[in-house]
Amino acid sequence: MNLTVLGATGSIGASTLDVVARHPDRYQVLALTAHAAAEPLLALCRSHRPRYAVLSGVGEDRDLRRRFSETRTELLFGAGALEEVVTHDACQAVMAAIVGAAGLPATLAAAAAGRRVLLANKEALVMAGPLFMRAAHAAGAKLLPIDSEHNAVFQCLSGNPLRSVRRIVLTASGGPFRALPLDGLDGVTPEQACAHPNWVMGRKISVDSATMMNKGLEVIEARWLFDVPPERIEVVIHPQSIVHSLVEYVDGSVIAQLSNPDMRVPIAHALGFPERIASGATPLDLGAIGQLSFERPDHARFPCLQLAYAALRAGGTAPTLLNAANEVAVAAFLAGRLPFTGIARVIDETLNDLAAAPAGDLAAVLAADAQARRAASALVMARAA
Ligand code: NDP
Ligand code: MG
Predict the structure, then answer these.
(1) Whose CA is nearest to atom 31 of ligand 1?
(2) 256-272: per-residue pLDDT in tens?
(3) Exposed / middle / buried, residue 188 (Cβ in 10 Å: 0-12, 13-18, 19+)
(4) Residue 64 in contact with residue 38, Cβ under 8 Å?
């Protein structure tokens, strides 16, 4: 299978290439992309020998092009090249692992071209869920969730009809601040927020996990991926991150998927589907783990979760506004311009200030995204002043 990896220099990109390298007989790498990380991308090209590499955030550079050609890789520049490498005739599957709203156009193009889409870029579905699902359906694209929770739900559903499902339960670790005294939250640093207890991930999703906006985005993602209304999607805190999610059926049976917290498990599942292939993950040793615990989320500690449910219920571009405001607020927090507790406040105020519109096409979605970015940036500036 010929594979394009969008976001190859990221955390999901690294795990994907690790699994791919274990199965050289099954997978060939067609293209690898990064935004600006030229040296890490070149190193990946040396080991994986793709036909194409893309630097989406860099303009034409002859010197770089020459250096990549030494690995027999053709280097392409600019965001337009992302769509080129996913719609290329030889491309059969796309790992969509760009972080944030920037991933939407290329991920949507892959779905619209009928590729097998391994979907890590949850922001694409949050911003444009109905649009994205319609495009995938019309083109016959196979969507395979990479987010560990959604991959778990996909496995637990295993083709059963939706009418037999009572609810979906997404697990959440609660992040690094689950037990911190509430008045300590204001002073936490980006380094503390990025030190996730169970997973090593990119910085943006690590902060989202600390605020639990990640789980809010995942509720929205689940709503569109599985066509289940918000009132039938629940969240439970599970600090060990061993049970990745559960599906409850109308007869009272609850099916869960378990593994050690290692993204290579859902990645291998999606790469191999419908077969099973080795992932390299350490086998689960329940005797050594001893205890699995569960608790209800604390909404005072994690206001972002309720903000996400509210945006999902409001519909139209409300989730797009939520996602954009979150990206601006998280970037400001990571840059030391906004306290941790300011993230939820900026999102809340942005959603109060802006009216959601119908999300009929990509242009409407991108306009809402831009509008929320402006509003949220102004709120961040006003707070810093
Ligand atoms: P990282 O920050 O580790 O990597 C992001 C990747 O996207 C890099 O290759 C980066 O390139 C590229 N990129 C960044 N900005 C742009 C842009 N504007 N245009 C094009 N490419 C860009 O992210 P993660 O791997 O952690 O996450 C990727 C996606 O997967 C996110 O949507 C996240 O929510 C989702 N996900 C991640 C999980 C994880 O365990 N990490 C778990 C579940 C979902 P460069 O290196 O040049 O900056
Ligand atoms: Mg997840």
Answers:
(1) 99
(2) 999 999 999 999 999 99
(3) middle
(4) yes
State which ligand 1 atom lies nearest to the alpha carbon of 8: 9
Cβ neighbors of 245 (< 8 A, separation 6 or more) are 148, 149, 150, 152, 153, 156, 168, 169, 170, 171, 256, 257
Q: What is the pTM of this model?
A: 0.98
Find the 15 Cα to ligand 1 centroid distance in Å: 12
Residue nearest to atom 22 of ligand 1 (CA): 35
Query: Max CA-CA distance within the chain?
Result: 64
What confidence tens digit (pLDDT) does each residue in 151-199 have? 999 999 998 999 999 999 999 999 999 999 999 999 999 999 999 999 8
Domains present along the chain, CATH in parentheses: 2-145 (3.40.50.720), 151-314 (no CATH)
Residue 155's CB is within 10 A of a number of other CB atoms, namely 18
